[in-house]
């Protein structure tokens, strides 16, 4: 579905959009140089110490979904609940 | 006057005596400069003070309105959150409360922290107490003004300079810590790979102590850095707070990137070079470097920030919480709530962020910006191998007049402050004087987890180039 913009909004933003695009296009000057580098999503991605309280790979930990007869996913028991009950 | 010495030096009697004085100064900042969106009553504040206990007892803290506070309206400066009362406290609020401080109110800010002039708030613009026809800077405009107008400390958030830039425009100290030092749990996200909770302060000792308390590890923020760097820094911060300046930490090698400095106004450059002379007289070795890779920082920052904003702000649909405008269909209700709930600057950034990350343009803009982010980070780290800090003016000009820097034409004012946000380094803005009665700041960017070095440098400049007892007067400086 396409959402309609309120009247006059396109023209209101046009000048600003042009200015922002000019700013965005400045990265093109460095396009060739940029290709030598890998994208950096997080400022400390390389140098941050990894978290110790979570598993290193979530994929191994992801629970396998179990479906009920009517097609709904049966929620797995919450981790730690048993411990709390026992405690 | 109660601001004549740091909070950490106040006696128990002074803490009690100064409670009302602090409140009255915030009330003035609210009345004269529109520094607060929500200011609590003296009765509420006094009630909490009587129940409180801890090392911060007697300290009233203004908090930026994008940090959630249980039971207190939190609007982000936006109409879309005009009825949002959080059911929990941010980590930093938990720390403040458990140490005896009282949150005095929620400060005015640019809508969703998007802006650098304090003009885009739905709740009206904030005025600069040094010159009421000038902008106070942003986005943490109210927090900076509250401290400038006889306050001690305040909390803000810094995504591209939102603490340091208003600190510079209001003659107060502003710190953006290392990314991952302070928990962002409870900070309403705008661009989460760039932003950190920051601190405004009048004195370096208070800043060191508050940072010591707020930098405790919190497992609820998955981007927090855990390790010895944090704990050794915290010990250094405690030493600074209670023993003052460490002369050994002043044996520094500092560099300024001439290609950036020469883009500032001539008067700003003059003041900057004067502060370099003071640093040299203190024994700091100051050198000049060229860092052309920093020229692309501004466009890199804006692409990343807008893309992250378009993603983060998708949650405001008018369905879960916040403003909901009734319409015949679900899609109409979402469109109406967002169209009328967000202001112009927020909509501009959502539109452009969506565009820059859309299929076909992602590689041209967003991914390229992320590659350049690594280039900037590696370049800066290389500079910081040979130097302890990088210095430059916090802003290229003194605070502009209202309207002069509103919208995209004002993005240029962030050219110095966005750099540490891209790389995650800590940075501080230290007041260094006035140009035609308008405040100017010096930005010092340090190595990761070197906040103690930055605060120590600030403390050594107190009463030399920066007078922490100086406050503005009504109707101009």
Sheet with the most strands, sense and barrel status of chain B: 8 strands, mixed
Uncertain regions spanning at least 5 consecutive residues of chain A: 47-51, 80-87
Distance between the first and last residues' Cα of chain B: 18 Å
Number of strands of chain B: 11
**Alpha-carbon Rg of chain A, integer:** 25 Å
**How would you characterize the largest beta sheet of chain A?**
2 strands, antiparallel
Helix/strand/pairing class of chain B, anyone?
alpha/beta
The average pLDDT value of chain A, as a whole number, equals 68
SSE layout:
The complex is a heterodimer of chains A (about 90) and B (about 475).
Chain A: H1 9-25, H2 31-34, H3 58-61, E1 66-67, E2 73-74, H4 81-86
Antiparallel strand pairs in A: 1-2
Chain B: H1 12-33, E1 36-39, H2 42-51, E2 60-64, H3 91-98, E3 102-107, H4 141-148, E4 153-158, H5 164-170, E5 173-176, E6 196-201, H6 204-214, H7 228-243, E7 253-257, H8 258-261, H9 266-281, E8 285-289, H10 297-312, H11 330-341, H12 344-356, H13 366-386, E9 389-393, H14 418-423, E10 427-435, E11 438-446, H15 451-461
Parallel strand pairs in B: 2-3, 7-8, 7-9
Antiparallel strand pairs in B: 1-3, 4-6, 5-6, 5-10, 9-11, 10-11
Helix pairs in contact in B: 6-7, 6-15, 7-15, 10-12, 10-13
